[in-house]
Amino acid sequence: MSKNTNRISSVIPQTDLDAALKLIEQGYNKLKPYLIEALSKHEIEAYAKLGEKSEPFVGKGIEFAKNNTQLVPRRCNIAESEKDFKVFEVLRPLDVLVAQLALRISQTRTIAGAEALDCINDFYKSVKQDAQDGIADAVPVYEELKKRYIGNGHRKPISTNSK
Is the entire prediction scored with pTM above 0.85? Predict the structure, then answer.
C-alpha cells in the first residue's frame, strides 16, 4: 500500500472506548471462573488439538460410549469428556468473535501507527533540511527528533590515523 492513503481519518470518542472496554472486562470477568490459567507455549504444544475433522469423531464417540458402557476403558470418564466437549463447543462463537475483534483492532492500530509515522518521518526530513539550511527554529526540533535515529544510520568510520 502506498504512503499517504489516509485510511484512518477518525477519532474514537473516549466514551465509546470506555464503554467498549467496560463491556469486554465484564465479559472477561463473567467467564474467568470457567477459563484455565494461561499456559506456556510448551505446555499447550503437549496437548492434542481438536480440529474440524476430529470434532465429529469426538461427538460420535461420546454418544457411542454412553450407549456402550461395557466397552469404555476404566481410565476414560465419559461424563467428564462430555462436559469438556460441551465447553469446547459453547466457547467457539466467543473464540471466533474475539479473534475477529483482536485482528481488526491490531490491523487498525498498525495502519494508524504507520500513517502517523509516515507523516512525522516526512516532517523530520523537512526539519532536518531546514536545520542544515540554517533555519534557527528548526535546529532544536531536529536535535530532539534525531534521537530516534541515533545508531540506525550509516556510521562514520573510526579514524585509524595515529599522530
Answer: no
